[in-house]
Each structure stands twice: as structure tokens, then as C-alpha cells.
Amino acid sequence: MKNYKNIKSFDDLIEVEHGKIGSESRNQFEEKSQMFIISEMLKEARKEANLTQEQLADKTGTKKSYISKLENGKGNVQLSTLIRIFETGLNKRVGLTFL
């Protein structure tokens, strides 16, 4: 059973649930979290642009099924493809931050 008694912050909770930074469990959690954020940003930007998944796929040389997978957090995405989808398809700039 996990000990929630000494949790004082969200970071403490994440550590109890998924382990310390660098652990396999924590890395998997962080990867899924980032994919969720990307999928939500993509979905929101596409809707703001009044595009269907099919229209966005046509603009960016991908397939509707690929856009759908990304929006549902189920697909792996290459950075170059992600940039093309946001910049060419949605007229948004992409910036990266490494911590």
C-alpha cells in the first residue's frame, strides 16, 4: 500500500504514484503526460482553425487516421511531422524547451 501521509505537494504525489525522476515508471508517466498535452493542443488548434481531421491531413500530407491517432494520444510522432502539422497545417509556431 502506498503512503500518502507525508504528501505536501503535487510533485510529492507524482513521486509516490510513479517513482522518482529517472525511474522507468516515472519516465513512462512523463512520456504519456507529454503526449496527452500535445494531443490536446493539436485538437484545440485544429478546431480553432475550423478544420476537420481530413482537411488537416490533406494540408500536411498525412492521413486522417494519423491525425486521429495523434489527437487521441495513441500515435508516435516524429518531430518534423509535428512541426509540419502545426506550422503548415495550423499556421502555428512550434517552440521547444529542454529542461
UniProtKB/TrEMBL annotation:
Q: State the PROSITE patterns in the record.
A: HTH_CROC1
Q: Name one Pfam family in it.
A: HTH_3
Entry GO CC: cytosol
Q: Which Gene3D superfamilies match?
A: lambda repressor-like DNA-binding domains
Q: What is this protein called?
A: Transcriptional regulator
Describe the location of the HTH cro/C1-type domain by residue ranges: 42-85
Q: Which UniProt keywords apply?
A: DNA-binding
InterPro entries per the UniProt record, alphabetical: Cro/C1-type_HTH, Lambda_DNA-bd_dom_sf, TransReg_Diox_bact_type
**MF terms (GO), sorted A to Z:** DNA binding; DNA-binding transcription factor activity
